[in-house]
Design brief:
Elements lengths: L9 H24 L6 E4 L13 E3 L1 H4 L1 E2 L9 E2 L3 H9 L11 H14 L3 E4 L5 E9 L2 E7 L10 H10 L8 H8 L7 H52 L10 H10 L8 E6 L7 H5 L9 H22 L4 E7 L2 E6 L6 H21 L6 E4 L9 H14 L4 E3 L10 H13 L3 H15 L6 H23 L5 H17 L3 H41 L6 H7 L4 H12 L3 H17 L6 H7 L5 H12 L3 H6 L1 H4 L2 H12 L1
Parallel strand pairs: 11-12
Antiparallel strand pairs: 1-2, 1-7, 3-4, 5-6, 6-7, 8-10, 8-11, 9-10
Length: 647
């Protein structure tokens, strides 16, 4: 299948329209020098260049038509070209074109599109017309039409045919039309052939102009892709914290890269945009288990995040010295610097940028989006610290726009943060895990740019890995697996060149722990169900109660019921009833036992209740089942038995 060409950008459309202005002047010159006048270009209906309802064609009409003093018997406008005046009278100066001229123009246009060749044909009233297609490498752009002419001198018989063809058009003044008919130019076959050749030259000119713009468009797309890669590369370098040596050890290469993406100055602030909906937190979705299949709602949310990210990047390119990039799904980092004489004016400019970004996100349904703004950092190597400051402002604030405020006297304690993270992990609360993880990283690696600070950050992160692994081992997973994951995380942290990579390695380890907790909770609930079945077998269905089972498992009756329903797909009460009924079915096969005795042995309070429950589940009475067990133990009873066995 041939790949569909992308639409021209607005800039290239304007360039093409400038070419068409020159083409219109050519048409005016043609009108004053050729016997065949009023050449016009009708665009293809599927060409997204102009609004076809406003300007469906390029024509010499605007240049040729002149205003004339309107008398009682003369039209308000006319043209010095006889052929134009004749056609104007036929289609009522455009008011009745669909009922008249379009009857022959549209079929001619379709023939040109289908065949790709020029056509000389009679119009609907018998005058000769020329149609020349404009085609650029197989793509149909439109059709050039000439003004109508005659190949033989006008005669009364010819006008009689015209009158007959237009007899159902009451808007036409036949007297004026007859006068105009005798003024229609008469051309020879050679002149007609020369006009076809000239129009084909014009068609090639338009096709070449279109091709030139397509080449410009392809170059523009390649340039846009290169700039997008350069912007991402620059953003990654700024977030890595390793900008002292620049690109490949050359500081000037870093400045050249910044200049290439349109930055006149290096950014001195970082803004972090966190995109959220009203119902869900994007962070919670982004850390969902890889084993889980994403729902349609989650896929839609991810697509929305990608669309908003593109809109944000485009919006930031319209501001000077501003660069945006995606850090994680649902979170964007915006580097910017604003020229301002006073801090208050700079804050006002940053506020305007932040509000514009928030409006963009909210217009796509992300109503709870928030922004954090860092402090000022003059050196590119400090922008990683600015990124941490912006995240810290988001985590500590609760408004839509949060400004970082340094608090040296109230420095956060990493031990307290890691304790909250461990508590969130034990309950597998994804939202609490994300919040406590950000809080810990903000306190552990806020300004890790020097060698000493990097060593301090490594020490805190390795200590956190050891602490989490030791506490996590008490939950029940294999100590060997936990130790192997911990050692891998510590090794990655020790090998990381900057604090950003170290923080990412720690996040990966915490995510692994969360997945293990989810798996352990699932296994624990399955084990509770298995133990419940074992206790029912040991105690006997007639003696087992929910309270006794819960007491043996050291759980509350309510918690046991919820776990069993969530895991087994039926309530514990229903399971106990079915087990009693299975016991009752076996006892009913003993002819020595009465129904009342069977009910008592199965643990039912009275025979009537036993009969009611038996009929509900087995679709027959206990006595009928005892008399005909094989006949009444059909597919419905068997289905019930299979369901009980499966549970």
């Amino acid at each position: 299948m041939k790949r569909q060409k992308e639409a021209l950008s607005e800039t290239l459309k304007q360039e093409f329209k400038k070419d068409l202005e020159l083409f219109e002047y050519f048409l005016v010159l043609l009108n004053s020098s050729s016997p065949i006048r009023n050449v016009e270009l009708m665009w293809a209906d599927d060409l997204e260049l102009f609004d076809l309802t406003e300007r469906p064609r390029v024509t010499t009409g605007d240049a040729l038509v002149q205003l004339r003093a309107a008398g009682p018997d003369s039209p308000a406008r006319s043209s010095p070209s006889p052929s134009t005046y004749f056609c104007d009278l036929v289609h009522g100066f455009g008011a009745h074109e669909e009922q008249t001229c379009a009857r022959s123009d549209k079929p001619a246009k379709e023939r040109c599109r289908a065949t790709g060749r020029s056509h000389v044909y009679p119009c609907h009233v018998g005058l000769t017309d020329i149609a020349v297609p404009v085609i650029c490498e197989g793509r149909y752009l439109g059709t050039l039409f000439s003004g109508q002419v005659l190949t033989e001198p006008p005669a009364p018989a010819g006008f009689i045919q015209i009158r007959q063809a237009l007899e159902n058009q009451p808007h036409i003044d036949m007297a004026r039309l007859e006068e105009a008919y005798y003024r229609v130019p008469v051309v020879t076959t050679a002149q007609l052939a020369e006009m076809v050749r000239m129009m084909e030259v014009f068609a090639r000119y338009i096709a070449n102009a279109w091709k030139r713009l397509e080449i410009m468009r392809e170059f523009q797309l390649v340039r846009e892709r290169e700039l997008a890669l350069d912007r991402r590369e620059l953003a990654e370098m700024l977030l890595s914290g390793n900008t002292v040596n620049g690109v490949a050890g050359k500081p000037e290469a870093l400045r050249s890269l910044a200049c290439n993406v349109g930055l006149e100055r290096f950014p001195d602030r970082v803004m972090v945009l966190r995109m959220q909906t009203e119902d869900d937190k994007t962070e919670a979705k982004s850390v969902s288990s890889d084993a889980e299949q994403p729902s349609a709602e989650e896929i839609g949310t991810q697509l929305t995040l990608v669309r908003v990210a593109h809109l944000i990047e485009d919006r930031c390119r319209s501001w000077p010295n501003t660069l945006a990039t995606v850090v994680t799904p649902g979170e964007m980092c915006i580097f910017t610097t604003q020229k301002s004489g006073t801090p208050s004016h700079e804050r006002m400019l940053l506020d305007e940028i932040a509000q514009a970004l928030l409006r963009t996100a909210r217009s796509q349904g992300l109503m709870m989006s928030r922004i954090g703004v860092s402090g000022v950092h003059q050196q590119p190597a400090e922008l990683l610290r600015a990124h941490h400051e912006a995240i810290s402002a988001l985590d500590s604030g609760h408004s839509t726009l949060n400004w970082f405020e340094a608090q040296p006297a109230r420095h956060q304690q990493p031990a307290q943060s890691i304790a909250r993270l461990l508590k969130a992990l034990q309950s597998a609360d994804s939202l609490a895990i994300t919040a406590s993880l950000r809080e810990f990283l903000a306190s552990a690696v806020p300004t890790a740019t020097s060698i000493v600070q990097l060593q301090q950050a490594r020490g805190l992160l390795t200590w956190a890995c050891e602490h989490l692994a030791r506490e996590f081992a008490e939950l029940g997973p294999s100590a060997e697996i936990v130790t192997r994951a911990k050692e891998g995380a510590i090794q990655t942290i020790m090998d990381s060149p900057n604090s950003f990579a170290m923080a990412d390695a720690f996040r990966t380890f915490v995510e692994w722990l969360r997945q293990q907790v989810v798996q352990l909770l699932s296994q624990r609930e399955q084990k509770i169900v298995s133990e419940t079945h074992r206790l029912v077998r040991e105690l006997g269905p007639e003696n087992a109660t929910i309270q006794d089972i819960a007491q043996n498992l050291k759980l509350s009756a309510g918690h046991l019921g919820r776990v069993y329903s969530r895991t087994a797909g039926q309530t514990l009460e229903e399971y106990l009833i079915r087990q009693k009924l299975e016991m009752g079915k076996r006892l009913l096969l003993d002819p020595r036992l009465h129904v009342s005795e069977v009910a008592d042995r199965c643990g039912f309070c009275n025979p009537a209740y036993f009969a009611s429950v038996f009929k509900k589940y087995m679709h027959c009475t206990p006595r009928a089942y005892a008399n005909q067990p094989h006949r009444l133990g059909g597919h419905e009873t068997q289905a019930s038995e299979h369901k009980v066995a499966a549970v």
